[in-house]
C-alpha cells in the first residue's frame, strides 16, 4: 500500500498508507509534501487519522466533509515548507474546539509542541463574554500571545483564515461582512507585519470582495477591460527595460505585474480619483544577481525614463520593519503611463513573498533569514510587553491595531541607530522605542539639533535626541498624540500604577481615621487581622484594599469594622475617639483632585468627598456643589492643609473692567509682578459696551498670595470689580 509520500488517486479518493482520504483535499496536500522525509509523512498520516475520526459526520456550510478544511490549511502550510509539527497541528487545529478530543490526548499521541500549537490556534469558546467584541478581543489576545511564544501559531491561523476567505461564498451576507472586516483589520495587517506579501495581498483582495461586493465587481470589470487595452504596452515596456539592462551588461529577470484590486481601490480613495485616472495599473519587478547590480539597474533605468521626484525609496539600505528589502522608483513611461519599479535580488524576493515563513521555506538554501527573524521577534516581544500592561482584551487589541498599520518612518538616534516607527509617530514614541525608562522620564526633545515639543511628528531621516529628568513622569495628555501601541500601553500602565500607589497612600490615611473614630488603635492592626480580612474577600493584598479605599471603591469605615471584627482586635473603651483630619499637601497626584467648581487653595476651610473610582475631591466648605440635603457623612472626610505646601494652586477669578485699549496687557503685567501666572482666560457675554467681564484662572500659593494679587489688580483705574468665582453644579 503506498504511503502519503507516494500516492495514487482512485475514484473514491486517495489511498495512502491504508487510509482513504477525501479526493481533492488529500491529493492537493500530498502533492505538496515532497520536501518531507517518509517518517514525517507517517506522522501526518496519523494526525489525519485522528482528525478524520473526530470530524466524522461534520460538514461545512458548503456541504463538503469538514475534514477538507484542515487538509486545505495543511496544504497551504506545506507550500511554505513548514515542519511536520506545524502540519500536524493544522490538521488537528479544530479537533479540540469542535470535538470531545482534549489537548492532553493530542499531547500524549503527538507530543507537547503539537498540542501547544493546536491550543494556541483554538478559540476561547467555553467562556461567557458580555459582548461579541469582548469575545473576539480575548481570542485575538490569546492567539497573539501564543504567537509570541511560537510564530508557527500565527502561520497556522493565517492559513486557516485564508482558506475560510477563499470559501466564504457559502455563508450568509452578514457573516461575510463581519469576517471580511475582521480579516482587513487584523489578519491582513499581521501578514503584512510579518512580511508575508503574497498572503497579505490575497487577504486584502478577498476582504475587499466580501466587504464591498458591488464595488469589487465594478472595479474587476473595469480592470479586465483596461487589461486588454494595455497588454501590448506592458509587453513592449518589458522588452525595452530588458534591452536597456543588457546595454549595461546586467543580467536581470523582468516581469510586469497587475496591481491588486484592493490596492487600486485604496489609491482611488486616498487621492479621491476615479478608476480612469489611475494610470499605474501595472508595475514591473526586476530581479538582479546582487545588491550592487540593483543600484546599477536603477541608474540604467533612470537614464531611460525620467524618475518622478519624491517617489524613490531605498529599502535595501534601510529595510522595512518586517525585513522587506527592495529599491522602489516610479518613472515617467511612454503614453504618459507612470511605471512603478521594484528592483531586488532573488533572496530579497523570497523574503518579500514569504516573510517570516522564509525561515522554513528557504532554509535549505544559502539565504540568511536572520534579519527577518530578528525583526519579527522584536515585534512579537513587544506584544508581551503590551499584554503585561494592558488592563483588558479590548485595550490590548486597540494597542495592537496601532502597530498593525505601520506605514513606516525611519529615524536615527544621536549615535546613528535606525529606528522604524509608524507614520505619525512623535518624539515620545521614539523615546519609548529607545527604552521604557527614557519614555517615562523624557522632558524635551531635539530633532536635527532644533528643540521641538514632545508631540512633534517625526519624518523620514530625522535625528532625534531625548532629554530626560529622573523626577519627570508621563503626562496623561501624551495619550492624545502618541502613535505606537508600545508607547500608549507604557504610558497607561505607568499612570495606572501611579494612581494605585497614590490612592493607597490616601486610603491608608482614611483607614487610620476610620479606626480611630471606632476607638481603635491603628498600631494594633497586625498581619493576622489582614489575613482574616482576606478570607471571603476578592482582594488579595493590603495595597489593593487601601487603593480601593483611596479611590472610593470601598468605604474606610466598612474596612475598619471588618478588621476589628476579628477575635484578636478589641477597642479600648477608655480611649476617646481621635478624629484626626487628613493633611493635604497638594502633591498627592491623581488620588486627590481639587474640584474645579470652587478651586480650593491653602487657607480655605476644606472638606473632601470620596468619589468612587476617582479618590478624594477637595471642596471649600461653602462650595455651591455641596448640597446639604444630600449630604452623606460616610462619603465625606475632614481634611486640612499642610502648614507649608510647596505647590501652586489654581483659583478662578472674575474681574470687571472698563473696556479700554491696553487694559488686558496691564492686567497680565500686574499678575506677573505678583509672582503669579495666568493658566486660562475667557470673556463673559457683554451686558454693556462700556465694560468687559473676564473669568480667568491664576496660580497662587495660598489665600495671602491671592490677596496680594487682588491688591495689585485694584491699582489699575479701569478695574471696577474683582472677586473669586465659584461655579454652581
Helix content: 40-55%
Global mean pLDDT: 77
Strand element count: 23
Q: What is the H level of CATH, i.e. the homologous superfamily of the largest domain?
A: Hypothetical protein af1432
Briefly note the structural class of the backbone.
alpha+beta
Helical segment tally? 26
Label the overall shape.
extended
Can you tell me the CATH architecture of the largest domain? Answer: Orthogonal Bundle
Which regions contain 5 or more consecutive residues with pLDDT less than 50? Answer: 1-24, 124-130, 359-370, 401-405, 566-579
CATH fold call of the largest domain: Hypothetical protein af1432
What does this structure look like?
The protein is α+β, with helices and mostly antiparallel strands and 729 residues long. The chain has 5 domains: 8-214, Orthogonal Bundle (Hypothetical protein af1432); 220-355, 2-Layer Sandwich (Beta Polymerase, domain 2), CATH 3.30.460; 373-483, Beta-grasp domain (Ubiquitin-like (UB roll)), CATH 3.10.20; 493-591 and 610-616, no CATH class; 649-724, Alpha-Beta Plaits. It has 26 helices and 23 strands. Strands 4, 5, 6, 7, 8 and 9 form a 6-stranded mixed β-sheet that branches. It has a 5-stranded mixed β-sheet with strand order 15-19-17-18-16, covered by helices on one side. Strands 21-22-20-23 form a 4-stranded antiparallel β-sheet. The relative contact order is 0.05. Mean pLDDT is 77; it is low at 1-24, 124-130, 359-370, 401-405 and 566-579. Belongs to the relA/spoT family. One of its GO terms (cellular component) is plasma membrane. InterPro entries: ACT-like_dom_sf, ACT_dom, Beta-grasp_dom_sf, HD/PDEase_dom, HD_domain, NT_sf, RelA/Spo_fam, RelA/SpoT_AH_RIS.
Amino acid at each position: 500500500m503506498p504511503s502519503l509520500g507516494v500516492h495514487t488517486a482512485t475514484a473514491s479518493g486517495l489511498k495512502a498508507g491504508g487510509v482513504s482520504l477525501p479526493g481533492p483535499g488529500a491529493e492537493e496536500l500530498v502533492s505538496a509534501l515532497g520536501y518531507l522525509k517518509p517518517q514525517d509523512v507517517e506522522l501526518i498520516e496519523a494526525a489525519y487519522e485522528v482528525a478524520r475520526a473526530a470530524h466524522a459526520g461534520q460538514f461545512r456550510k458548503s456541504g463538503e466533509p469538514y475534514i477538507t478544511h484542515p487538509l486545505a490549511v495543511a496544504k497551504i502550510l506545506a507550500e511554505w515548507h513548514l515542519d511536520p509539527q506545524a502540519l500536524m497541528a493544522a490538521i488537528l487545529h479544530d479537533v479540540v474546539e469542535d470535538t470531545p478530543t482534549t489537548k492532553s490526548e493530542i499531547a500524549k499521541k503527538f507530543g507537547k509542541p503539537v498540542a501547544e500549537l493546536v491550543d494556541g490556534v483554538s478559540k476561547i469558546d467555553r467562556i461567557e463574554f458580555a459582548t461579541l467584541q469582548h469575545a473576539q478581543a480575548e481570542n485575538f489576545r490569546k492567539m497573539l500571545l501564543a504567537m509570541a511564544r511560537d510564530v508557527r501559531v500565527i502561520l497556522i491561523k493565517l492559513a486557516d483564515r485564508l482558506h475560510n476567505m477563499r470559501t466564504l461564498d457559502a455563508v450568509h451576507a452578514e457573516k461575510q461582512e463581519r469576517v471580511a472586516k475582521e480579516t482587513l483589520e487584523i489578519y491582513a495587517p499581521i501578514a503584512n507585519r510579518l512580511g508575508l506579501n503574497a498572503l497579505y495581498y490575497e487577504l486584502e483582495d478577498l476582504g475587499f470582495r466580501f466587504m464591498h461586493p458591488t464595488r469589487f465587481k465594478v472595479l474587476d470589470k473595469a480592470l479586465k477591460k483596461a487589461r486588454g487595452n494595455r497588454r501590448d504596452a506592458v509587453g513592449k515596456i518589458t522588452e525595452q527595460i530588458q534591452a536597456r539592462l543588457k546595454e549595461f551588461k546586467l543580467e536581470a529577470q523582468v516581469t510586469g505585474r497587475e496591481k491588486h484590486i484592493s490596492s487600486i481601490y485604496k489609491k482611488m480613495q486616498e487621492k479621491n480619483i476615479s478608476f480612469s485616472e489611475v494610470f499605474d495599473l501595472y508595475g514591473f519587478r526586476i530581479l538582479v544577481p546582487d545588491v550592487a547590480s540593483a543600484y546599477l539597474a536603477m541608474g540604467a533605468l533612470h537614464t531611460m525614463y525620467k524618475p518622478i521626484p519624491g517617489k524613490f525609496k531605498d529599502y535595501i539600505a534601510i529595510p522595512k520593519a518586517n525585513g522587506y528589502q527592495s529599491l522602489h522608483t516610479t518613472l515617467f513611461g511612454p503614453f504618459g503611463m507612470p511605471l512603478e519599479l521594484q528592483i531586488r535580488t532573488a533572496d530579497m524576493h523570497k523574503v518579500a513573498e514569504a516573510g517570516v515563513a522564509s525561515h522554513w521555506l528557504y532554509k535549505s538554501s544559502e539565504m540568511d533569514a536572520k534579519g527577518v527573524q530578528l525583526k519579527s521577534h522584536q515585534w512579537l516581544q513587544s506584544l508581551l510587553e503590551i499584554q503585561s500592561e494592558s488592563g483588558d482584551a479590548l485595550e490590548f487589541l486597540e494597542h495592537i491595531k496601532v502597530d498593525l498599520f505601520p506605514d513606516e518612518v525611519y529615524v536615527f538616534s544621536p549615535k546613528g541607530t535606525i529606528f522604524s516607527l509608524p507614520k505619525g509617530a512623535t518624539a515620545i514614541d521614539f523615546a519609548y522605542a529607545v527604552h521604557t525608562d527614557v519614555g517615562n522620564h523624557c522632558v524635551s526633545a531635539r530633532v536635527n539639533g532644533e528643540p521641538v515639543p514632545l508631540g512633534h511628528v517625526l519624518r523620514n531621516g530625522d535625528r532625534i535626541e531625548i532629554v530626560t529628568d529622573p523626577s519627570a513622569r508621563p503626562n496623561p495628555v501624551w495619550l492624545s498624540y502618541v502613535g505606537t501601541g508600545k508607547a500608549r500601553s507604557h504610558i497607561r500602565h505607568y499612570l495606572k500604577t501611579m494612581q494605585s500607589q497614590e490612592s493607597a497612600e490616601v486610603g491608608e490615611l482614611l483607614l487610620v481615621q476610620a479606626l480611630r473614630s471606632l476607638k481603635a488603635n491603628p498600631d494594633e492592626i497586625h498581619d493576622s487581622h489582614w489575613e482574616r480580612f482576606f478570607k471571603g474577600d476578592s482582594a488579595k493584598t493590603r495595597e489593593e484594599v487601601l487603593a480601593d479605599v483611596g479611590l472610593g471603591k470601598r468605604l474606610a469605615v466598612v474596612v475598619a469594622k471588618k478588621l476589628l471584627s476579628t477575635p484578636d482586635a478589641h477597642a479600648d473603651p477608655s480611649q476617646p475617639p481621635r478624629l484626626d483630619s487628613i493633611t493635604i499637601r497638594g502633591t498627592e497626584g491623581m488620588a486627590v483632585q481639587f474640584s474645579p467648581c470652587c478651586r480650593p487653595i491653602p487657607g480655605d476651610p476644606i472638606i473632601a468627598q470620596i468619589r468612587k473610582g476617582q479618590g478624594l475631591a477637595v471642596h471649600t466648605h461653602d462650595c455651591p456643589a455641596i448640597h446639604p440635603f444630600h449630604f452623606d457623612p460616610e462619603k465625606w472626610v475632614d481634611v486640612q492643609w499642610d502648614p507649608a505646601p510647596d505647590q501652586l494652586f489654581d483659583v478662578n477669578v472674575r474681574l470687571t473692567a472698563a473696556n479700554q485699549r491696553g487694559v488686558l496687557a496691564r492686567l497680565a503685567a500686574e499678575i506677573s509682578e505678583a509672582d503669579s501666572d495666568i493658566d486660562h482666560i475667557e470673556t463673559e457675554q457683554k451686558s454693556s459696551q462700556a465694560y468687559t467681564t473676564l473669568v480667568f484662572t491664576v496660580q497662587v500659593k495660598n489665600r495671602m498670595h491671592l490677596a496680594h494679587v487682588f491688591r495689585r489688580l485694584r491699582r489699575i483705574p479701569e478695574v471696577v470689580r474683582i472677586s473669586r468665582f465659584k461655579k454652581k453644579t
